[in-house]
Amino acid sequence: MRVKCPNFRYALGAYYLIMPSEASSNLAKFDGMRFGLRVVPEDSPTAENVMKATRGAGFGDEVKRRILLGTYALSAGYFDAYYGSAQKVRTLVQRDFAAAFEQVDVLASPTAPTVAFRLGEKIDDPTAMYMNDIATIPANLAGTPAITIPSGLAEDGLPAGIQFLAPVRADERLYRVGGALEALLEDSWGGPLLAKAPELTNGAK
Amino acid sequence: MSTAADIDLVDYDEAIARFDPVLGIEVHVELGTATKMFDGAPNIFAAEPNSAITPTSLGLPGALPVVNRKAVEYAIKIGLALNCSIAETCRFSRKQYFYPDLSKNFQTSQYDEPIAYEGWVDVELEDGEIIRVEIERAHMEEDAGKNTHVGGSTGRIHGATHSQVDYNRAGVPLVEIVTKPIPNTKGRAPEVAAAYVRTLRDIFRALDVSEAKMERGNVRADINVSLRANPEAELGTRTETKNVNSFRSIERTVRFEISRQAGVLDAGQKVIQETRHFHEDTGGTSSGRPKSDAEDYRYFPEPDLVPVAPSREWVEEIRTSLPELPAARRRRLLGEWGFSDLEMRDVINADALDLIEATVAAGASAQSARKWWMGELARIAKDRDLDLTVLAVSPVQVAELQGLVDGKKINDKIAKQVLIKVLDGKGDPAAIVESEGLAVVSDDSVLTGAVDQAIADNPDVVAKIQSGKVQAIGALIGPIMKATRGQADAGRVREIIMEKLGVS
Questions:
Q1: A88 Cβ neighbours under 8 A, 6+ residues apart
Q2: Minimal Cα–Cα distance from B222 to chain A, Å?
């Protein structure tokens, strides 16, 4: 049966505020002071400049993007509107799950709105990448268990997945449902989906 | 540096006559738990640098915090002792800024949900006046590590070639207690500020939650001062002088800021809301960091910790186990000891309350215990520039010494000599008296010989006594005491002289 989870539509936005906020904070310890990479600028190697140079050299673009987003979301004057609102959405998503699980034991959905990208295809389009998380993020926000199993190949040979979701601490339902579907699918495919995967060719790393 | 250097200080009394000072005080106390706030590293002072650490103290990737239950208990104790409400649920938040002594580059603290809030404490000033200070909140947090700047002449970062960081202190549990604005102190603002911090220090010690040694930085105060035209006016802009570490420095900080801010306002300028630092050498404060560097700490709830929700049963259990607090104890001891209010205040101001109580517990009378600690020992401590509490004599030894005097084993004068020997580490009073033969000589055979000698040596004095001037006996007793190294029983000597000379 179909269930309604009206607040899931806000989950993606909330997630991409909470996650970068926490990332900006969690990654602050990578400063070249105690461990790991240390880059010492030649002119004026103060602690602050060493931190700047180390972080500038050590983090990749996506990490920097998230640190910037998170730092902004936690800034004075923006906290309530961004991080604070996102945490409220998180509560609403949890309530949607609670209401849904009063009607059903597990939920099923596509894992992603599209089949897999071609390798490297969207690397310069972070928004498209974020958007592709739309179906998996509610579970992450609510702290509920979820499992994804391969569901087949699209016409162009790229794989798709199906996701099952269960209430908190009911993880074993996911193995039962996932295992049953996997067995049926593998019977119909004549083996695991991975066996149909092409050899990786150039461009793949 | 700020433009404050150009400001003329206004004479303190004049500043007080024209402005109304308002205080606000933040006190940090390091808790005396066995381990740190969020990890199992030992909470110890002065260990080898970077020896009391774990991956969590160092903020290594993957390390996670766990709240120290004992630290929460101590925070609740402090909250209850300050008449605060204890939160049914509260949480930790991250206060974020980059600094090498802050291993994670955020301090795990509490922000909008402190463990204790809305309390008060009564502060007694030296003349007995009592000021009630309202407490805004008390919250839990962790201490930072310690930077040492090497290569410069001053030990400060300016001119240093490199810096070293010791993370032993990183993660040590702290409770920060924040007052509401403290109004109506007028000219007594410096004294109120110091007395408030002293009151907290005494409470921490009574609760046994901290060694609470100012000189070790166990207790640190941030002093906020603002001026307004009169008590009805809006609060003025405040400055916050950080980490003031002695009662005297607290008084000087408040005094200086009142004079300085009055100067700023007189010059038609505005007081800048800023962090300032107190300088022991000059007694002044200077601007901390430039305003362009104003911090945004980006507080947010600590995602690695669940909220702390102390059960009401636990809070009540802690409440009933609270020890007698200093104010109640002072009232009780005042009644038990029969001191005057003035005597009691002197005892408190000299930090001698514990010493006298322990001396009384060891058997001395309250008055004799007070006489030793506030008299001879206070004088010796002052001569040696030491605190009474660190003198090398215990209350038990003082009581033993007084016992020897009370039992007429020694007289007051010998007792003072014995005390010096105790302080010199020669042992306990009775043993010293025994081994050095200092007991009072009341054996007539010894005394009679000394009396006979004195009579023979002083015929003129003898003549005076026999002619009726009995008070001249003193002139004979002196040489006798000298001959017996002060150990003669003066009363018995007097009796023997009178017998020998046939006077009464």
A1: none
A2: 23
DSSP A77-115: TTTIIIIIHHHHHHHHHHHHHHHHTTT-S-EEEESSSSS
**B143-155 burial string, b = 16+ CB within 10 Å, else e?**
bbbebebeeeeee
A79:B96 CB<8 A: no
Supply B27's token pair: 């006190």
Cβ–Cβ gap A31/B300 under 8 Å: no
Q: Which of B105, B106, B113 to mutate to test the interface with A (most CBs of A within 10 A)?
A: B105
Supply the DSSP string of B481-493, one letter for each residue. HHHTTT-B-HHHH
Distance from CA of A172 to the nearest CA of B (A): 25
Which of B165, B296, B300 lies nearest to residue A21, judging by beta carbons?
B300
Contacts of B12 (CB under 8 A, 6+ apart): B187, B255, B258, B259
* Residue B504 or A35, more confident: A35
Determine contact, residues B359/B369, Cβ cutoff 8 Å. yes
- Whole-number pLDDT of residue B46: 73
- φ/ψ (deg, to 5) at A110: -60, 150
Rounded Cα gap, residues B398 and B368, in angstroms: 9
CA dist., res. B260 & res. B407, Å (int): 60
- Tell me how close the Cα of B100 comes to any Cα of chain A, in angstroms: 7
Does A31 touch chain B if contact means CB atoms closer than 8 Å?
Answer: yes
Q: Whole-angstrom Cα distance, residue A46 to residue B1?
A: 20
B246 phi, psi to nearest 5 deg: -145, 160
For each successive 10 residues of chain A (205 residues), what is the average pLDDT? 95 96 97 95 91 97 95 93 96 97 97 89 86 94 96 89 97 97 95 83 58
Which pair of structure tokens corresponds to residue B84?
């605060």
Q: How many whole angstroms separate alpha carbon B177 and alpha carbon A39?
A: 40
Nearest CA in chain B to A74: B298
Question: Does the CB of A47 have a partner CB in chain B at under 8 Å?
Answer: yes
Q: Are B276 and B241 in contact (CB under 8 A)?
A: yes
Calpha distance B205→A16 (Å, rounded): 48
| Tokens standing for residue B378 | 């206070």
Measure CB to CB from residue A74 to each of B99, B100, B298 and give the nearest one. B298
Sequence-ordered list of residues with C-beta below 8 angstroms from that of B451, at least 6 positions apart, any chain: B476, B480, B493, B496, B497, B500
- Tokens describing residue B324: 């007698």
Q: Closest chain B residue to A83 measured between Cα atoms? A: B300
- Highest average pLDDT, of B138-142, B350-354, B432-436, B471-475, comes from B138-142
Catalogue all structural domains in chain B, each as residue range(s) with its CATH number.
3-315 (no CATH), 326-424 (no CATH), 444-501 (1.10.10)
CB count within 10 Å of CB B244 equals 26
Q: What is the ipTM for the molecules in this complex?
A: 0.86
C-beta atoms of A30 and B61 within 8 A: yes
Query: Residue B172: is it exposed, middle or buried by C-beta count within 10 angstroms (0-12/13-18/19+)?
Result: buried
